[in-house]
Write a structure and sequence with these properties.
InterPro entries: ATPase_P-typ_cyto_dom_N, HAD-like_sf, HAD_sf, P-type_TPase_V. The protein is α+β, with helices and mostly antiparallel strands. About 40% of the residues lie in helices and about 15% in strands. It has 2 domains: about 50 residues, no CATH class; about 60 residues, no CATH class. It has a two-stranded antiparallel ribbon with strand order 1-2.
Length: about 120
């Protein structure tokens, strides 16, 4: 856990298709290619695994923040298991306590609005 894995794939694109893809960001009205149409018929060529180590002092900084009375939380867009492993490594995961996984942006906006009000 704690690694980023990217699938690497390719396909040969020629002529009008290549021009549409390359100019799509310049002229969105003319070339509205959906992600699915760009990513279809790909040939998988492998995986790229990136190690994203924590900074050496992360755990001690979080420990000091907790000791000084701060509530420390983690908000991330990582996969649930990746986030749980990082939280465990830095001492954020309590033996007993609440852990939430939010799935939708609307939930985050509502929770934030409720906390502000």
């Amino acid at each position: 856990l704690g690694r980023r894995v990217l699938a690497m794939a390719y396909r040969k694109v020629e002529g009008a298709s290549a021009n549409s893809i390359l100019s799509g960001s310049k002229n969105n009205d003319r070339n509205k290619l959906q992600r699915e149409s760009i990513e279809r018929r790909l040939t998988l060529c492998g995986f790229l695994v990136l190690d994203c180590p924590l900074k050496h002092d992360s755990k001690s900084v979080i420990t000091e923040l907790k000791k000084s009375g701060h509530d420390v939380v983690m908000i991330t867009g990582d996969a649930v298991l990746t986030a749980a492993e990082v939280a465990r490594q830095v001492g954020l995961t309590p033996k007993r306590g609440k852990q939430y996984e939010l799935q939708k942006k609307e939930m985050v906006a509502k929770e934030t609005a409720d906390d502000i009000l």
